Amino acid sequence: MRSWFRLGPATLVAAAFIGPGTVVTASLAGANYGYALLWALLFSVLATMILQEMAARLGIVTGMGLGENLRQLVAQPALKFLLFLLVIAAIVIGNSAYQGGNITGASLGADAIWGDTLIISSIRAYTGLNPWALLIGTLAVSVLWHGNYRLIERCLIGLVLLMSLAFVSTMLLTRPDYGAMLQGLLLPAIPRGATLTVIALIGTTVVPYSLFLHAASSANKWQGVHNKAEALQQSNADLRTSIPLGGLISLAVVSTAATAYFGRGLAIENAADLAVSLEPLFGQRATYLMALGLLAAGLSSAVTAPLAAAYALRGILQLSNLHFRLTWLTIILIGVVVSSLGLRPVSVIWFAQVANGILLPVITFCLLAAMNMAILGRYRNNWRQNIVGGLVFVISLLLSGRSLWLAFAS
Fold first, then answer.
1. Taking the domain 10-409, which CATH number applies?
2. pTM here?
3. H or E segment at 122?
4. Can you tell me the distance from the alpha carbon of 163 to that of 262, in angstroms, rounded to the nearest whole number?
5. Which of 405, 403, 347, 400 is nearest to 96 (CA)?
6. Which residues have C-beta within 8 Å of that of residue 230, sequence separation ≥ 6?
7. pLDDT tens, 323-340?
8. Mean pLDDT of 62-69
9. For the chain, percent of residues with pLDDT exceeding 70
10. In this predicted structure, what is the pLDDT of residue 1?
11. Residue 177: exposed, middle, or buried by beta-carbon count in 10 A (0-12, 13-18, 19+)?
12. Cα–Cα distances in Å, from 68 out to 92, 225, 389, 404?
């Protein structure tokens, strides 16, 4: 019997794109523009499903991650060198910079739930460091160091389900306007000044490092499986479940912020503000649920971001298992230091955003080329998949061009 819904490697993608950055972006979208930008979320979910289906199919059929396939696809030495530099800049260096935000976001959630206990206060007073960052970094290292792929997948499935429960329950407690929500989903509109927010909503969902993560994790999941058609059916069922679930989480955050802030003349700076401000409006339960969702979002991204960077680097540079572990361990340690000391590496983040803006259309184009390789046989892209993928490529090119212009203009 064919399964239409399941949870698997695509859950890692949902766990990756629902991080503190996405929660903050979605909160600001709802607070500033209500439900008007929900259509951008719907588009980003559809675009993510299109690209991730190709990445998963590539991993399952070839038994290799995207990095390994790119190394074989790009034969010209100069082009290969440029591609490698882009991947290292955007994914490895970029995720190192963003890891501090992931751990900080999880720390804010933990602090909103448990507050300054005696132990936490003592550690902070004597060391000057953020104890929550140390604990969350230790948890991330523990999951990746001791866990095989199956354990990592189960941990992240648990975190995604926890995020879903927390954010959707918070949305229901705030009683959103379902009519306005439906209108925002189906009728595209860009209010005055909302262009940057639209780009941010799409950019936090359709990200290049998730393609490396999904291709490699799918290759691991179905390694040695001879029935490729059945494996692809299972992967597609996983996509139909996990990616829309991630979209539902983002929708819940936008809707909660819209209900709590839009039209009330209130300002919001980050997701922690949203968690704290919900209590006088909707009670203590809403505050705790929102904080719990932020904790789960930060922890899930604190695991997936270094893992994705390690997969990308291993595929391209043919790293050993030891160097694979050292890659994600280094990224986690950088994140802990950045979060503990309250640093904000603005220049590094700017550099990573520029590299990401260049990398997304490049990787999308390379993925489309890889999906037409003869080695895939009957699993190559058909003409419909190429047209849809080409459309996503053009849109990613336009969005990236706009992001790069804004990065240099600022």
1. 1.20.1740.10
2. 0.88
3. helix 118-127
4. 23
5. 347
6. none
7. 999 999 999 999 888 888
8. 90
9. 86
10. 43
11. middle
12. 16, 19, 21, 28
